[in-house]
Amino acid sequence: MLALRSVSAAGRRCKPTALLARATTTRISPLATTLPRYQFSSIRSRGMAQVPVGQPTKPLPDKRSIIPLEHPDPSIVLTNIQGDVYPTFPKKVEQFIFFSITNPDGFREKLREFRKCITTAADVVKHLKEIEEARKKNQGLPKPLPKDRMVKLTQYQIGFSFSGMTDLHIESPGDPELMDGQKKGAADLGDEPAPESTSAKFVGEHWSQEWREKKIDGVILAASESSDTCEEAVAKAIGIFGNSIKVEIIEHGKVRPCEEEGHEHFGFLDGVSQPALKGLVKPHTGQLECEPGAIIMGLKGDDDLSFPQGRPPVATPRTRPSWAIGGSVMAFRKLHQRVPEFDKFLEENPIKEPGLSHEQGVALRGAKMVGRWKSGVPIDLSDKDDPKYLDPEVINNFHYHDPTPGQDRCPFSAHIRKTAPREHHDAPGARIPLAPVLPRALIMRAGIPYGPEVTPAEREAQKTSEEKDRGLLFVSYQSHLGSFGFSFIQKRWANNPAFPPLEENSFDDGVDTGFDPIIGNAKGVVRTRLASGTNPSLSTEEIKMEEDFVIAKGGEYFFIPPLTTIDRIGNGDKLRANEATAPSASGGGAPAAAPSA
Ligand code: N7H
User: Fold this and answer.
1) Disordered: where is this region (predicted)?
2) Computed over its alpha carbons, how large is the radius of gyration of the chain?
3) Is 402 a catalytic residue?
């Protein structure tokens, strides 16, 4: 058996099949210098990275993007907040159980039982510590680790869509798009290939049949360190709810194999930039910071902005019903990725510069479209895939300013610059006063890849096989979808070729920024998208993308209640929108009555 296994470049063992798949999908950037593999280990793996035998045993730096403070703001009640909202579940495997409620009274009774299983923010903080301890102890051991060396993780979260909220007598916590549901808003998100004129009507040609047709009232997340633990967790949750629910769809997420762990299917390291919530997270150098209310309802910073003419923007705290405080809105999107087609596009559009090989030109074009090299190195910091920029105190320490606020290094259209335009904190001449918007437009991302690796046949054909579905189960948390959470970012920034507006800026070069090349959607039947700025020596050059590389197959928005509100739902209380309203200020609501398991 051992003879059949191979040792990867990293010294980590992979089964031959996994290696074969990786060999056909992984392109280590030709610009990458040789370095011990562990330095590339996943940030998302949250400390579960291991060092190959024979490597130095110097303690690894803690690469997690979210490091909870030892002494968090005591007014924020971590036992009352569900744990994937903050600090987000550490995981290698995750299943999303989408269900309809068949019997609301029976469901309430079962919810009282399930409540004990819900993993709170306080629990996740503990898990992260345990994982960090285990990581230190396991340093130097070969992979895969024996089961008894892994921290066993059974983590649950529950949330409700608008239709589920209606069944359970929960009124609006104050987010119109949550109450409309994602299907209704899909045309506006650009998922809809119908002509603009009919964009109000949802046809849903791109959405899968099940996502178009099923009634989704709620979601249970089960996240673990292994498939076995996750399967057990799913069986237990479904067993608890019994016939009070009907399981409509289960989506299966899993980190990619071997060196690709932590990387999404196009090959880029994911989970690198997360907001540091003030009072909860110890920020790394340069990490974007925001008030916790940008993610969690009712906390400081859960506010709206208005832009009175000729005057600075005004922030007004949102008024939330008391039962919403400590809750959040989850945006779930099943995003299919057309990996061979994306790679074909790069192959056919390499950046051509003297001294750059074809392969280097291909890698550079990809990095310019995303804003980071596949390793995670930001192109704003380095035009080479240089691992020294992977240091957690360096990897997010950039603001697109240096040396000028132009796009010589990172295109305005790059995915990470479109979705988090860091420089607009103080960009001279910026038409939209983005400085107050950006810290409110930070989302907590907690997605996981799904589907198989690209096969040799697909790679050969440069086309995704009809039987293969792979992509990202995208999850984000925010206190408000439209201002300024997921749907704001998707619609107003990624899908908007005129964002950021260049014409009034000193770096005007006469063309629109264009679409986000990764997730930007051209609404309508014609999906062709242009993006400028990806050629460093010709910023007016526009790349033309005839087809989408990322296609939304479905999704929904969910209210993720605080634990005290789960208790009230279980008890059959009617939760009114105008109940004991409280302006958002601080605190995570009352402590949960019972500690969670
Ligand atoms: Fe994106 N990708 O692989 O290209 N994303 N994303 N994303 N994304 C990021 O910082 C990707 C999607 C954001 O603070 C990285 O984790 C893919 C949606 C934001 O600098 C990479 C898909 C939305 C950031 C990717 C996808 C966003 C971000 C860099 C879909 C919101 C942080 C690594 C299949 C509407 C930006 C990292 C910052 C980062 C990719 C979806 C938003 C590599 C493949 C739908 C805010």
Assistant:
1) 173-201, 577-597
2) 23
3) no
